[in-house]
Structure formats: C-alpha cells, structure tokens
Amino acid sequence: MSTPEAAPAGTASAGTAPARLLAVRGLTAGYNGLAVVRDVDLTVGAGEIVALLGANGAGKTTTLSAIAGLIRPMGGTVEVAGVANGTRPAHRLARSGIALVPESRALFSELTTRENLRVARRRGSEGADAQDRILDLLPELKKCLDRKAGMLSGGEQQMLAVGRALVGRPRLLIVDEMSLGLAPVVVDRLLPVLGDVAREFGAGVLVVEQHVALVLELAARAYVLAHGRVVLEGTAAQLRTDTDLITASYFGDAATAEALEAETP
Ligand code: ATP
Predict the structure, then answer these.
(1) Mutate to test the pocket of ligand 1, among 28, 62, 104 (most ligand atoms within 8 A of CB)
(2) Rounded to whole angstroms, how far apart are CA atoms 88 and 96?
(3) Is residue 248 part of a domain?
(4) Fewest C-beta in 10 Å: which of 12, 37, 127, 265?
(5) Rounded Cα gap, residues 255 and 34, in angstroms
C-alpha cells in the first residue's frame, strides 16, 4: 500500500517522483505532556498534493500544528527542504516557507480583502506582482477587494484565506478543512484551487479534508490517521479503490484491523 504508483494525480510533473519537500519522521505531539499523535511518518513533494484523512479527533489538526511549528513536537523530526523546522508563532510561519490556512480562516474581519492581502506581505519582498498572481488564480476575489472580509460569503472568505496564505510564496501550503460549513457547489470550486497552487506556484500542499472522495480525486497520495497513528497510506488511486478500508479506519482500530486482514492475500 505504501509503494507509490507511477504518474499519480496531483503532482507537478506526472510520471516523475516530486522532489521531497516535507519530511516528517516519528512525529509525536500533543498537549500538556500527553501525546495525541504518535510516531507519524509523512512526506510531501514539491508540487505534490497530499491528503491527511481521519475521523474527528484523530489528531489531524495536531499533526498540522506540529508540522508548522505552532506546537513543539514531543518526539521525531520535521524537515522542510532538508532543514529542521523549529517552533514559532503563527505570524512568523512564512520564514520557514510554510503557510497555514487554519480551519478558522483567521482573517481580519474589519479589514477589506485588499487590506488582508496587504497585511500578509512580507515587508519589501513581494508587491503588486504577488497580488496580481493571486487574483489570477482566484478571480472571484477581484470584486471583493474593497469589501470587508467579515462581509464576504463563506466561500469568498476561504478564497481570501488561501490567497493570503499565498502572498508569501510558501513552498509548503498546509490547509485544514477548508470546506467546513460550505455548500457542495462552493467546495467543488474551491478544492481544485489547490491543484492550481501546486501546479502554478510549485508548492507542496498538505490538506485535511472531510470530503474524502473529492480530495482523493485531487491528491497524489493520502495518509489516514486513527487515534493519532497512521493506519493507512497510499496513492490516491489505490485508496479510491479501497474506500471500505478508509471507512473502516474512521470507525476504530478493530474494524481497521479486520478490513486490513481481509485485504491481505
Ligand atoms: P477534527 O476533525 O474534529 O478537527 P482532528 O483530527 O483535527 O479532529 P485534533 O484537533 O488534532 O483532531 O484533536 C485530537 C485530540 O487532541 C482530541 O482529543 C482533542 O480533544 C485534543 N486536543 C486538540 N487541541 C487540544 C488542545 N489545545 N489542548 C488539549 N487537547 C487538545
């Protein structure tokens, strides 16, 4: 299950393995000294989309937070482009080449779309160029430039959250449940944006998403967490044919073990 097939979807150049951008080894992380995720190994290539799946409370957000450096890992290593990633507050994430789109979107609701994008700019580095590129990618934002973020629809807010994350030209974009609470038609429009980010920005994308079937159409590979451990991993193509196995992993270790046993020739 863990051997990637050739030419997965969601990679910058189909047929060749993308250069490894994120390498997570033996990651253990949690809160107040109690581990919530244990011994997680995970990789994302440059220009590759990788999905992190799992039931509520499985530890997805905790894994993302530890990878981004928002919480200090209790064990294991996180490397971005071969460099160990340290812990840092959210507003310093861009320094490590990582951008996080949190579940909450974390926009400045009293600022306009234009101002939200401007605030995200690193002083002196990216200017109007970056904004133009982002608006090309997310043309729906053009009509929202002078509207306050708090007045935008859920889908527009989410686009702004993605756009804002891209201002610093991250090498790795981490997206936590971007479709939460959005209508299916909006989700259908939003998720493919991540494909554009991977293709046009060359960024690796690690995405937590509850719409499993949709995200497996987009991603090259996926990992499934249950109770803080990776219980399944494989190419999206493999996992699309094993949806029973994914479902089983959402319902607990016993069911997963049973399903895995049934899979074994
Ligand atoms: P969901 O899909 O519901 O967002 P998740 O897979 O992202 O879930 P996490 O949010 O990582 O899971 O939570 C994993 C476990 O860690 C849960 O039991 C949760 O209660 C606990 N947890 C999350 N954040 C904290 C925190 N700040 N302090 C203490 N425990 C936490």
Answers:
(1) 62
(2) 9
(3) yes
(4) 265
(5) 25
Task: State which residues form the domain around 66.
Answer: 20-105+172-263
Q: For residue 142, tell me if it sits in a domain.
A: no
Residue 9 lies in a domain: no
The answer to whether residue 93 sits within a structural domain is yes
Is 78:29 a contact under the CB 8 Å cutoff?
no
Say how many Å lie between the CA of residue 182 and the centre of ligand 1. Answer: 21
Ligand 1 contact via 43 beta carbon (within 6 Å): no
Centre of ligand 1 from the C-alpha of residue 58, in Å:
7
**54 in ligand 1 pocket by Cβ < 6 Å?**
yes
What is the count of structural domains for the chain? 1
pTM over 0.70: yes
For residues 124 and 140, give the distance between their C-alpha atoms in angstroms, rounded to a whole number: 26
Model pLDDT for residues 154-194, shown as the tens digit of each residue: 999 999 999 998 888 889 999 999 888 888 888 888 888 89
- Cα 112 to ligand 1 centroid, rounded to whole Å: 31
Ligand 1 close to Cβ of residue 60 (< 6 A): yes
Q: Whose CA is nearest to atom 17 of ligand 1?
A: 57
pLDDT tens per residue, range 38-63: 999 999 999 999 999 999 999 999 99
Q: Is the dihedral of CA 22, 11, 176, 224 positive or negative?
A: negative
